[in-house]
Write a structure and sequence with these properties.
It is a single chain. By secondary structure, this protein is an alpha+beta fold. It has a domain of about 110 residues. The protein has 3 helices and 8 strands. The strands form 2 sheets. The protein has a 6-stranded antiparallel β-sheet with strand order 1-4-5-6-7-8. Strands 2-3 form a two-stranded antiparallel sheet. A hairpin with a 2-residue loop joins strand 2 and strand 3. Helix 1 crosses helix 3 and helix 2 packs across helix 3.
Length: about 160
């Protein structure tokens, strides 16, 4: 018997971006970065223990497929495309003329150019159940190029508590 697990992750943050023009820093702005990831995992119990009607423990492993939508990080090409400059210096001069509007244009361009990435993952975890209370710990290694810039994969670990009816 195998279990099918489906997960959705939302990860986001703001980062401070400071462009430089001729070595001189311009106004800093907060820009968004984020991703939405979906995971489908086939899990198989490796080891299980049970006290009927009272408690249960399980060690399991699995593998699956994942898809990600990733907001691109700031690059010279993103700046030039967003601000309409022919080169980086011209684009940064446009940014300097109106930093608030420039930051909005950059953020909009980044959201309009969200990248689609697919990959697979390996997962292991433990789950414990006592009466109707569940606790679990999962570890997953995701193999998907450039979800994190210049990386072919990344680990994740999460802990949870649940009440089962």
């Amino acid at each position: 018997v195998v279990d099918l697990e489906a997960d959705i992750e939302f990860v986001g943050n703001l980062y401070e971006y400071t462009p430089y023009l001729a070595g001189i820093p311009l106004a800093s702005e907060d820009l968004p970065w984020g991703r939405v990831s979906t995971y489908v995992t086939i899990r198989k119990e490796i080891l299980g223990l049970s006290i009927p009607l009272l408690a249960k423990a399980q060690l399991y492993g699995g593998l699956g497929f994942n898809k990600h939508k990733v907001v691109p990080i700031m690059t010279a090409d993103v700046i030039k495309d967003a601000l309409g400059g022919n080169d980086l210096e011209a684009a940064l001069k446009l940014f300097e003329a109106d930093t608030e509007e420039g930051a909005k244009d950059l953020a909009k361009s980044m959201l309009d150019n969200v990248e689609d990435v697919s990959g697979f993952h390996l997962q292991a975890g433990v789950r414990g159940k006592l009466l109707m209370f569940n606790a679990f710990v999962n570890a997953r290694y995701t193999i998907a190029k450039d979800v994190i810039p210049d990386k072919s994969g990344y680990p994740s670990l999460w802990v949870g508590l649940a009440i089962g009816i």
